[in-house]
Amino acid sequence: MGTLLHAITPKLALPGHDFSSSSSSSSYYGLTFPYLNSRFQGSSSSTRLAKKIRVSADSTKHSPAVDFSDPGWKSKFEKDFEARFNIPHITDVFDDAVSIPSTFCLRMRTPVSEEFAGGYPSDEEWHGYINKNDRVLLKVIRYSSPTSAGAECIDPDCTWVEQWVHRAGPREKIYFRPEEVKAAIVTCGGLCPGLNDVIRQIVITLEIYGVKKIVGIPFGYRGFSAKELNEMPLSRKVVQNIHLSGGSLLGVSRGGPSISEIVDSMEERGINMLFVLGGNGTHAGANAIHNECRMRRMKVAVVGVPKTIDNDILLMDKTFGFDTAVEEAQRAINSAYIEAHSAYHGVGIVKLMGRSSGFIAMHASLASGQIDICLIPEVPFNLHGPHGVLRHLKYLIETKGSAVVCVAEGAGQNFLEKTNARDASGNVVFGDIGVHIQQEIKKSFKAISVPVDVKYIDPTYMIRACRANASDGILCTVLGQNAVHGAFAGYSGITVGICNTHYVYLPIPEVISYPRLVDPNSRMWHRCLTSTGQPDFI
Ligand SMILES: Nc1ncnc2c1ncn2[C@@H]1O[C@H](COP(=O)(O)OP(=O)(O)O)[C@@H](O)[C@H]1O
Ligand SMILES: O=P(O)(O)OC[C@H]1O[C@](O)(COP(=O)(O)O)[C@@H](O)[C@@H]1O
Ligand SMILES: [Mg+2]
């Protein structure tokens, strides 16, 4: 039996979302993902970010066609996985690139930013560096059967297959001389708690390596082309306290110039290290920038740090800002609960972010213990009918006297009129599902002459704009440092992440081929259902 399978993706039982199909498209549930085109983006100057051509993403492109009757399939699979997760290195293009001993001191000496003319200060007997052959195991559960809860299997027997990815951290040899580096940082997309923490750590770590030219590009990729926007000089002094507030010191934006315009601008400015903080779209851009630099034979390191409050980046335990968002969402949920609980037949509705993934809604519901109904984009539901949400709400009002609903912004979009509107980055602009549910509740209770008092809370921007909590602060710190270590080690076209509590470098295309989704068959979603006590709404 020859079957085409993905190496690393859990198969999700979503209508119209068959990841195991060789014709995976760039859309599901009627949503399209512009960044899926990234693998197909050429370097032509006509490749404008604002005018992306939608191409079907062949997400099986790097996956093997596995013939499980071949006794050697497992080792072939593991070899293919190793190749897919290889991280691009400067020596792939510049075979004459020379390395020097690292200027990053594991034992600090002062002053840190001296010229290193007399030799680099890492020639001590100290072995705290990461070996380039160190690896982290991506999947750590050995399922004994495909029927085990949450099993992610590659073959019908759920054979144990090792999937190793590259370990992040400082290397003993570096491929950039600090005095020759001009590093730039850019933050793109929507806000996310922790952006300032990452910026701060990148700057601090660069300075420890001995870099003196560090700049911030204002307002996302836009800052590369807008003449009125000047780059912002950065230093430890400038960034010292920025993590104490939310937002981004540099500003963010969606849309922007073409890849070739961005790379032209990098050439003009002499930028040879670029740190890109953003989500799926931003990373598609970062990968295209990396490819364009290679094509122009520019010795540049482009390193991403995944930023998304939605937590929709593949393979990672979580992205920074997610924890804070879940925590902050508790305030909205608690307010909705109090309002609902204090009203006669009160219903509270909280809408949380999650364009295509319901992670925030699911985790916030679980954390609060105050949610009766959690609705996410990955799990279809009916509002009306005998098994619909409204029928269950009536039951809750009758039995408990009140109810609280948590809905992810991307959920139930099939109930809303499509506007076909897109933001500057090409993302679909959604209708407000919270408002729709509120109206439908009012209408349906009126029709049966049952009074109901509905309160709707949309805390989106309050959640996004706050500063990172302690746990995210640590995550940002480690990711920011590792981004700099990765660039100095000579890697480019990579992003940093946390997998099974270990820090890793991953090739960008592997983490953005589609948005990470809540698996409706996962134990976490089942835990959420157990906690809310909600039935299926289909
Ligand atoms: N497929 C793509 N290729 C290149 N750049 C992209 C692509 N998709 C989005 N971008 C750019 O990345 C930036 C951020 O994208 P956006 O989708 O708004 O946020 P996020 O990165 O958080 O997903 C924007 O400047 C956008 O133009
Ligand atoms: O109103 P904006 O700024 O376009 O942002 C809305 C979007 O931002 C998000 O919170 C995060 O999106 P990004 O990861 O693309 O920044 C989405 O959930 C939401 O759809
Ligand atoms: Mg996005």
UniProtKB/TrEMBL annotation:
It is an enzyme of class 2 (transferase). It holds the Pfam family PFK. Catalyzes the phosphorylation of D-fructose 6-phosphate to fructose 1,6-bisphosphate by ATP, the first committing step of glycolysis. ATP binds at residues 190, 254-255, 279-282. GO terms for biological process: fructose 6-phosphate metabolic process. PANTHER family: ATP-DEPENDENT 6-PHOSPHOFRUCTOKINASE 1. Belongs to the phosphofructokinase type A (PFKA) family. PPi-dependent PFK group II subfamily. Atypical ATP-dependent clade 'X' sub-subfamily. Homotetramer. GO terms for cellular component: cytoplasm. The active site is at residue 310. Mg(2+) binds at residue 280. Signal peptide: none annotated. NCBIfam families: PRK06830.1. Residues 183-485 form the Phosphofructokinase domain. It comes from the Eukaryota. Pathway: Carbohydrate degradation; glycolysis; D-glyceraldehyde 3-phosphate and glycerone phosphate from D-glucose: step 3/4. This is ATP-dependent 6-phosphofructokinase. Substrate binds at residues 308-310, 353-355, 409, 461-464. InterPro entries: ATP_PFK (IPR022953), PFKA (IPR050929), Phosphofructokinase_dom (IPR000023), PKF_sf (IPR035966), PyroP-dep_PFK_TP0108 (IPR012004). Its cofactor is Mg(2+). It is found in: Cytoplasm. It catalyses: beta-D-fructose 6-phosphate + ATP = beta-D-fructose 1,6-bisphosphate + ADP + H(+).
